[in-house]
């Protein structure tokens, strides 16, 4: 399975068409994040709008509850005040035998003034008292004979257990038209001396349109509604829309739920409902929000966002297509040109288009082809030069053989004439040149390089009467390691010629040692010659590539460059010198 996935990944990443890979990149880096962002935005919008809608609905519902409670509180306050007013008890408990007409008129006027004062202060619309005596109140519309309403339905609702009752407009269907459009609070007043004997009924009314206005001003949602309930009967509502018939099936269950919004499923869909019991009347103030209303705005925003996303995706696709086409067209031209060069047409050229990376690649390819033309011309010229040098090399091969033959003849002549000094020197010189040539090899064992140096010192001592005393301190384990040839001899030559022979007596000592140090070999050449001042040492060893020509400098620079080319910049020559005391040169090579 893993191999199959690796094969599929390789096929998509390496073997697939570039156009396909660019389109996949477009999808993965643009469309996929855009789609995920859109989904996140949809969910976030729904959450925010739902939260804000319920928050606004809750505020509107609380404001409605406060307004309705305020209206009904006015009725309760007025009834409580009147229930404690002695004028009411005096008027309700008087009889014709115990009062004169003037007294009755004064009592009724006093009570009427009290009613007017309470209406002005509390804001209720009407106050009445129904009394059970034989007073004549022809001019007092707020004082009514209880016998005149003894056939009313609302009167039958009172009982000793319920002396206080709330009435809605529907409870006054048998009242005159001008009296049935109000909400009323009524309380039975009992005789203080006979607590079971009713004296009168206090009635305080507030116009129904004022309650309807308080309920109807709530604008929760477009189709949401706030309603006032009594025994599952809507007393008033903020909307004229009828609720579905099965809305009331679970209303009792929902009314018993804790405060907050609860879901109610009906044949018209899901509603979010909330109910609260009014403090004074005990009636229920409820609210119903259709589920579709809550998310209507979010759906509109979603559709707008989706349209924007689709437009952006199409615009991005068109842009990606144009960019891809431009890239592929130039790459195909470059590929065709390279294929033509592969077939042997090296004269073909490509005109660069653009200054981006592809344009730079096309320019680099054009420069490369021009460079190839130049190199081919140079190679042709070098080939001709190599032919000429090969001819010279063949001619030059005669010179070493001629030199060896000449030295052998001199050696034989010295032996015949019994001149051992000449034989020794000629033999050393022959070995010296043989090691220098080393059959054309550039790398030789360190042992051969040391032998070459020994022969050089021997020849110099034969020339200058053994003025150079040499001490060899060689570790045997270093001898097999290879080294590029003719490295040690030039260093020794500089030490002898520019160090020891520049002393007044032209005599001195030379110490040569080798050490195996980890991954490298260190060769040290130390003399007791005249030494070098800092400027001379810097000129010979410090500025190896400066091109400065100093005494012995060219050979030193040549050796150091050869060491760098062969082993790297971390290897080469180091020099320590003190004027009048001598010079120490260290050669460091790797153990290969």
Give a verbal description of the structure.
This protein is 52% helix and 19% strand. It contains 14 helices and 17 strands. The chain has helices at 2-15, 18-83, 86-93, 101-122, 208-216, 251-255, 291-342, 357-396, 398-416, 420-437, 446-463, 488-500, 534-542, 553-567; strands at 126-131, 143-145, 164-167, 182-191, 194-207, 225-230, 233-237, 262-266, 269-277, 284-290, 443-445, 468-473, 482-484, 508-517, 520-527, 572-578, 582-590. A hairpin with a 6-residue loop joins strand 9 and strand 10 (284-290). Helix 2 (18-83) runs antiparallel to helix 5, helix 2 runs antiparallel to helix 7 (291-342) and helix 10 (420-437) packs antiparallel against helix 11.
Beta percentage is 15-25%
Backbone shape: rod-shaped
Q: Helical element count?
A: 14
**What is the share of helical residues?**
40-55%
Strand order of the largest sheet: 2-1-5-4-3
Question: Largest sheet, described in full?
Answer: 5 strands, mixed
SSE inventory with pairings:
Elements: H1 2-15, H2 18-83, H3 86-93, H4 101-122, E1 126-131, E2 143-145, E3 164-167, E4 182-191, E5 194-207, H5 208-216, E6 225-230, E7 233-237, H6 251-255, E8 262-266, E9 269-277, E10 284-290, H7 291-342, H8 357-396, H9 398-416, H10 420-437, E11 443-445, H11 446-463, E12 468-473, E13 482-484, H12 488-500, E14 508-517, E15 520-527, H13 534-542, H14 553-567, E16 572-578, E17 582-590
Parallel strand pairs: 1-2, 12-14
Antiparallel strand pairs: 1-5, 3-4, 4-5, 6-7, 6-10, 8-9, 9-10, 11-13, 14-15, 15-17, 16-17
Helix pairs in contact: 2-5, 2-7, 3-4, 7-8, 9-10, 10-11, 11-12
